[in-house]
Amino acid sequence: MMSQSQALDQLVDFQSAIPKISRMGGGGSRTRLFACVRCHLLKTKEQFDKNQCENCPDFDSFEENTTSIYEGIVTLINPKESYVGNVLGLSDVIPGMYAMTVGSSAE
Q1: What sign has the CA pseudo-torsion 35, 41, 46, 52?
Q2: What pLDDT digit, counting tens, does each position of 54-76 carry?
Q3: In the Cβ-directed half-sphere of 42, how many Cα atoms lie within 13 Å?
Q4: What is the pLDDT of residues 14-23, one digit of tens each?
Q5: pLDDT value at position 24?
Q6: Of 8, 26, 33, 21, which is closest to residue 99 (Cα–Cα)?
Q7: Which GO biological process entries does UniProt record here (predicted)?
Q8: Is-contact 79 85, C-beta < 8 A?
């Protein structure tokens, strides 16, 4: 079993892996998220432009490899040990936010 200290360290590591999302407020705008069509990782356009997709080594371009059409969001802290991650086939990905369905299957 994980100690409280280990769990806290893991949470801190996880928080740095999640895309920074602005909440409603200020000008009433939202940061738009896009999903990688292969692994379903959710990030902003700027994050994909900067780091591409950390799960997909053959990620070529933002336009060809992402979609704004997705449904459901799941956050994975420890994908290898996550029941939800295993059910969704996301056990070998980085910690982060993932779409449950992407593309035409989400419509």
Answers
A1: negative
A2: 999 999 899 999 999 999 999 99
A3: 24
A4: 555 555 544 4
A5: 36
A6: 33
A7: regulation of DNA-templated transcription; transcription elongation-coupled chromatin remodeling
A8: yes
